[in-house]
Amino acid sequence: MAKKTKIDVDHSVCGGGNKVDPRDCCKCLQICEPAIFLLHQTVGAEEEDPYDPQLWSVTALWLSLCTRCMKCVDACPEGAIRVS
Amino acid sequence: MLTASYSRPNGDRMCESCLKHGTAGKWYLNAEEYSNEIVEKYDLRDFLMEQYLNFEQMSVRKVNGVNAVGLGYKLQMPLIGKVVKHLAENVLHSQNPPKNPLVAEGHIGQVIPLDDAIAILETCAVEPIILKNCMCRYMSRGIKEACCINFGVMSDIVDKLPRFIPDDDKYFVTRKQAVECFTKFNKRGYIGSIWYAPFPYINNLCSCANPECAGIRPRVDFGMKSIYKAEYIIETQQDNCNGCKKCVAMCQFNAITYNLTMKKVVVDREKCFGCGACTHACKDEALYLRPRDEVPQFKER
Ligand code: SF4
Ligand code: SF4
Ligand code: SF4
Ligand code: SF4
Ligand code: SF4
Question: What is the set of domains in chain B, with CATH numbers?
Fold first, then answer.
């Protein structure tokens, strides 16, 4: 089996109420051809306002379909994405 | 194992349109399964509310210690891959009363072409009808597009959740407006699909995109039966094709290619989901849909 791709999004910078609200950026979501990333409510913060959650995060979901084009790494204004 | 064997809880009360045209295996033309009675009978109101409150977390939240992150890798593992695929399909195909709103239990759909969608909107769908932002597109691209249509109890639930509400203040629509909206997206090339969510309640008529749709991706990329192909398949009338290539970009399943030698397109019918999007592009009647059952070698949904 080929080596597995690992993609880390630095959640201390992006999402969960930290520096960047991913909903205002979405650069990684939109530049990725196979649409690997998922924008979702921050896990653990759902009690705040479950009807209209304001804390969102990005997680790389469909890892096996990543082509390692590295476009997301270049596109992220915060350098918050690591593909390995 | 997982062929399309839909059991119909109260199968004989079909919509007018089925009575007229016959259902021919079209489970989605059964008015009973759209009804509010089914919601009450299976006690689905709270279940759906709970599920939609946390909708976008479904893939990242761990249920029994696993989530869907890196699903493709999990499926590639010997033995474990088979078990994961089997478990996931069992969840999606569940016909038991749903218990866990945090997984997509009994969430199974089928691709449908424009005419069947119009029949649903005109006769089966229960009012109120609402337009909602496509969750898949929001989750995968951060883009809000009001192309998902919900019915009945589901509309009331969506109305309580601001992130699903389109900016346009007229999101409760008449049947006629819903037909217009669906037609617009269908002609643009989106894939019509109808969903049990959860079985046996039908409340979602979607206009999907690939690879954005989380229901289509497991089928196309991982061979899981998360969605069935339509009751139709494309047929080509090659003599009529002028090689304009307009249909190629319409097919989200990459089933159509242009052949340089013949200066015409060829369709790989194995890949065809029968959505009919390509037929909207063809002005020369070189492409049309026919019932899948008439083409035995591609009868698998
Ligand atoms: S490396 Fe390319 S394919 Fe992989 S997640 Fe980033 S943008 Fe997508
Ligand atoms: S590009 Fe970077 S900052 Fe923007 S949403 Fe993605 S991870 Fe967050
Ligand atoms: S199933 Fe289709 S229309 Fe519905 S939310 Fe997903 S992509 Fe959007
Ligand atoms: S070839 Fe099949 S899947 Fe592709 S657009 Fe036409 S009907 Fe849809
Ligand atoms: S749109 Fe019709 S005429 Fe044009 S290439 Fe496709 S099949 Fe041929």
Answer: 15-222 (no CATH), 232-298 (3.30.70.20)
